[in-house]
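Hi Y.,

Following your request, here is the sequence exactly as I used it, all 231 residues.
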Amino acid sequence: MPDDGKVCSFDCLYCEAGFNAQGRGTTGLPPRDKVRLMLQEKLADMKQKGENLDVITFSGNGEPTLHPEFDGIVTDTIELRDKFFPNVKISVLSNSTRLGNPSVVEALKKVDNNILKLDSALDRTVRIIDRPTSPSYSVAKVVNNMKKFNGDCIIQTMFLRGEHEGKIIDNTTDEEVDALIELYKEIKPREVMIYSIDRKTPAEHLRKISREDLERIADKIREHDIKVQVA
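Below is the corresponding structure, written out as tokens. Let me know if you'd prefer a different format.
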């Protein structure tokens, strides 16, 4: 992703990288060969110094699957991982908006941890919290695409409360959680990760959900034989 801007198909109120209004920056998306070279140099240096590595994670200033060479970059990453740190996992954090692209789906099937965002089962809530840039976004479409992984995925849900531009935000209500559970049951992920905000957010009036409340939500999800990790 850009190192001095942001490229994303969401414009989340809680994004630690800031709002999309900051622009794409001046450097643009790094080409595949540059990503490969930089990763190779980093892994070789860590290996030479005897440093430990647990996971290589695709994240950053925006949505990694928007990169036009994402599939090839994943292929390169797997090759370099196998060469330098064969026991290390590869994770991709994505917002699930690009699952209609076959090359993105195939790339995500190759990684160890395909972590897909689903912050609400309700379109109206997603449009308030995640603010998808596409007017055609729908949760139903996203969930249908998630099913392509036949359960080999991890669903990540951010819970929060607050207010933005006069709209009340709370995706911890029974209505919200019950609707999410129904979608988790459809997707059948190998795990659900739930968490709350932990850093400064670009929208000012958001509140972190307590560990106690997160555990309460997790217990409700576990009643349906769904594995849950509380972060």
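Residues 32-49 form the longest helix (18 residues).

Thanks again,
Q.
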